[in-house]
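ARCHIVE CARD
Drawer: 12
Card no.: 0347
Subject: one protein chain, sequence and derived structure
Cross-reference: see card 0346
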Amino acid sequence: MEINIVLEELQNQNKSVYKNVFNHFYKGLVKYAHNFLFDQQASEDVVQEVFISLWENAQNIEIQTSLKAYLYAMVRNKCLNYLKSIKITDDLNLIDFNSFILEEEDLNLISEEEKTIVYTQILKIVETFPESMQQIFKLKFIENYTYTEIADELGISVNTVKTQLQRSKSKINQSLVVLLALLSHHS
């Protein structure tokens, strides 16, 4: 469908065109939002807000590119705003954290603001870890413990600590690859 025709129909409050647009894009947009938020409910909420805003503001919308690009850009902006609105802990030991998690060149591609978003997401990913892995990760990066201190604290070997941190790193990297690609792709 031609973008101008669709937009015109939306401006005329044509519910069936709106429904078609919604059905066509909804799933993909929720998936896209999930790459930023790692949270199904929040992702659905963001996409629904975008569609509500599309319906309510159709009169004032000018789309230069395509409806798809417009919707994806709106979802991305809403996700970034949502992440900014969540209070972020600044007590992470970020220098150590950076070198552990990310290649330096990845971090140079994104802004300070987006780094904060990446850290928020890392914390969310960490929350999905098994309890013991979470503990080790937090002791290392939030409490700034050494490997030996972690091993003593938890009554495990230094080797176990290293293995668990290695595993946590690869889990985080898998999730972040997508997020970093999304961020650097758009900046």
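Annotation on reverse: The radius of gyration is 21 Å. The CA atoms of residues 133 and 163 lie 10 Å apart.
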